[in-house]
Amino acid sequence: MKNRANEIDFREVVNSWYLQNKRDLPWRRSSDPYRIWLSEIILQQTRIDQGLPYYLRFIKTFPTVFDLAEASEQQVLKLWQGLGYYSRARNLHYTAKEVAYEMEGIFPKSFSELKKLKGVGEYTASAIASICYGEAVAVVDGNVYRVLSRYFGVDTPINATEGIRYFKELATRVLDLEHPGDYNQAIMEFGAMQCKPQLPLCASCGLQISCVAFQLQRVDKLPVKLKKNKIKKRYFNYIVLLDHQHTLLQARTKKDIWQHLYQFPLVESNDNLSLDELTKKEDFLDLISGKSYDIRLFNPKVSVHKLSHQHIYTQFWIVELKEPIPNGIHRKNIREYPVPVLIANFVKDFGL
DNA sequence: AACTCGGGGTT
DNA sequence: AACCCAGAGTT
User: Fold this and answer.
1) A198: which nucleotide lies closest, measuring CA to C1'?
2) CA–C1' span, A169 to C1, in Å?
3) Fold match between A4-221 and A232-350?
4) Whose CB has fewer CB within 10 Å in chain A, the N or C terminal residue?
């Protein structure tokens, strides 16, 4: 059973810590739901340092929800390139069009209506509703899980149904009903800067005395998270077709990573391939379809692109054709296409 | 309820 | 190498 006095103490310490330590971030200078929504989508599973330049570019390119709605999906994905979790960008664009064309550019004004928007879940709906409209709904993100689990000494796993429900209730209990928007940002900022995942600043923490995890020396054990699945290895052979001025890009359409981004024609295999093995593959032969070509391996040292759940071993094969590439694109236009970082790095290194 | 979706920062 | 990040959608 939790101590009511501790909960009040917790709230006040967090609020006063925030007044002293909060960063001056651009979306904190506004309560425009478009800007708050945009910032929250960009920051899903993304550190502020990584998302901030994207936010600035999006606001500059698309000052209003109408500007974003009128853009092409490819333009939105291109601006999103490098941020990852690309379905966020597609949902962002979808919702911009919905708000612009079906809601007259006005965002919904309650948690429950906001949550109906594509790409807006529990967390994001709570954030927008509390920050923009003062609705008393608690956010629960990775920071909140960490701060609450440590301070109240809760070892229920945060990524299973029971823990998700428990921490939502706890977060709601300690929410500052007078200033929910500022308080929500305060507890997240506190988690990001003070109660950090590793090497938290307990020595200078105003909550140290009443922090259960600190008193029990369990800070480094909380929060508890159930095991992650292991990393899958994949082997990609990208076929970089070249004629005088062109190359070939293809969209990724399968339900897989990088859906709707572009790449060179891909031959995926179960292991690294030699030149002989590659040139016997059906996918490769279909692509070449009897044309004469010169081929060389761009990176004899296989590059490894590491994603959260996949390690992708990649070889780039440069294939020069004497005749024009069917459906090829001008090399100079390659920058118009949204591509994974793996491809962008190659384009840069190769000098395409 | 478990899986999937990126890329980068911190130890 | 392991863990995490202002999570959401799908199966």
Assistant:
1) B11
2) 35
3) no
4) N
Bridge partner list, A233: A311
Q: Which nucleotide across the nucleic acid strands is nearest to A160, CA versus C1'?
A: B1
> Which of 3.90.79.10, 3.30.565.10, 3.40.50.300, 3.40.190.170 would CATH assign to domain A232-350?
3.90.79.10
pLDDT of residue A5: 63
CA distance A104 to A119: 19
pLDDT tens by residue, chain A, 352 residues: 446 667 668 999 999 999 999 999 999 999 999 999 999 999 999 999 999 999 999 999 999 999 999 999 999 999 999 999 999 999 999 999 999 999 999 999 999 999 999 999 999 999 999 999 999 999 999 999 999 999 999 999 999 999 999 999 999 999 999 999 999 999 999 999 999 999 999 999 999 999 999 999 999 999 999 987 789 999 999 999 999 999 999 999 999 999 999 999 999 999 999 999 999 999 999 999 999 999 999 999 999 999 999 999 999 999 999 999 999 999 999 999 999 999 999 999 999 8
CA A220 to C1' B4 (Å) is 28
Give the catalytic positions of A in this structure: 40
**Distance (Å, rounded) from C-alpha A315 to C-alpha A266?**
10
**CATH code at A4-221:** 1.10.340.30
- Write the burial class of residue A325 (CB in 10 Å: 0-12 exposed, 13-18 middle, 19+ buried): middle
Report the C-alpha gap between A192 and A189 in whole angstroms. 5
Answer whether the bond into residue A300 is a cis peptide, omega within 30°: no
Domain boundaries, chain A: 4-221, 232-350
Which tokens go with A270?
Answer: 């179960």
Per-residue tokens: A147? 């701060």
Q: Measured in angstroms, what separates residue A341's CA from nucleotide B10's C1'?
A: 21
Burial class (CB in 10 A: 0-12, 13-18, 19+), A279: middle
**Token representation of residue A109:** 């004004």
DSSP secondary structure, A221-259, as one string: G-S--PPPPPPEEEEEEEEEEE-SSEE--EE--SSSTTT
